[in-house]
Amino acid sequence: MPDISHRFSEARVALVDTAGEPLRNAAVTVQQTRQAFGFGNIGFDFVDWLGGPPPAGAPSAWETPHESASRAEALAADYLNLFNTVTLPFYWRGFEPVRGHTDTARLRRTAEWFTDRGVTVKGHPLVWHTLAPPWLLDVAEDEVEAVIRGRIRREVTEFAGVIDLWDAINEVVILPVFTAEDNAVTRLAQRKGRVKMVAMAFEEAHAANPRARLVLNDFDLSADYEHLIEECLDAGIQIDAVGLQTHMHQGYRGEEQVWQLLERFSRFGLPLQLTETTLVSGDLMPPEIVDLNDHVVDSWPSTPEGEARQADEIVRHYRTVVSHPAVESLTYWGITDRGAWLGAPCGLVRVDGTRKPAYDALHELLRGEWWYPETHLETDGAGAVTIHGFAGSYRISTAGGSIETELPPGQAAVQVVLPC
């Protein structure tokens, strides 16, 4: 079994009162409130429910208001029982379908709902050739860059403090040679080159919010992506994390291949984020398919055999990824099969709202094996307790009150001040 001992904290926590006196032989309750590792999923399903109805003519994620509330509430409870990080959609075509008319208010309401519940919010993405707005094609070529820069500044500035984590630019390796549809972002990349496109995205976003953490994200995990990262670092671009997409519609890659992938990209000394992970619970996509978008079927159901396979593979995948010290987060791409990417049965919850075995298996791992249960302790003669649990946030309570504190990985000595 992969070793994840480096994810755990062995902390001696000293409790003192407001006068600095140790709370000796005091009854203490310890509860974990959050893990330090980013366990994420997408929150696309919740934008209509939390943010309000979409603009006129845009499709809704829910059939009726009544069903919206009941389904969304149940799905949100399932979400919060597993995940501490959410990715929200900022695809430019949908975010600003008409120039100057943005979806800011709905996305802000959705983001704030998550942050109010202690969930870290990530925006995805600031720059991407796919789903660029059609109106951008009508902008004069010498003005396109200024418009894209303005889009970056606007979103990063307006969401600062609510969203401070962004996929700054998406799928750059293919960007200058993308031919599936004409778009102004690819045209700009053909003139500027990949590195300057990355520099534009990162520099504008960092200038708009110096506290923001920015991710370079790609599905092309070949040597071409490694070369791009090298070139960007050589150019002095401040990349805060490297994003690796691992959609596995054609089958689980296996522990060895996943580990080798993480080893290859860890050589840059940057945190790694597994930004888009999927495992299907139905028939696998044929192996000869190169572009996953080319696989179009009328129906792609979840099956009992596929669900058992998905449950086994998701636990193996999480164990492997979390065991690698370079990885800081893993985002699964879909809580439910409703509206799943490519229609694949890759969610953890079925279309009818019932949980798949993969949900239960992941819950047992994340909120069971890797979660510190509520524990009742007593401080020793020096006013301290020892806590061994997955690194993260903990609430420590006595009869006089409670406080939250961070317990870092490894051995640590922590002091907390509590009321008498």
Automatic annotation (TrEMBL):
EC number in record: 3.2.1.8
Pfam family, one: Glyco_hydro_10
Keywords linked to the UniProt accession: Carbohydrate metabolism, Glycosidase, Hydrolase, Polysaccharide degradation, Signal, Xylan degradation
GO biological process: xylan catabolic process
Catalytic reaction equation(s): Endohydrolysis of (1->4)-beta-D-xylosidic linkages in xylans
A single MF term (Gene Ontology): endo-1,4-beta-xylanase activity
Record-annotated GH10 domain positions: 69-365
Family stated for the protein in its record: Belongs to the glycosyl hydrolase 10 (cellulase F) family.
Protein name: Beta-xylanase
Annotated organism of origin: Tessaracoccus antarcticus
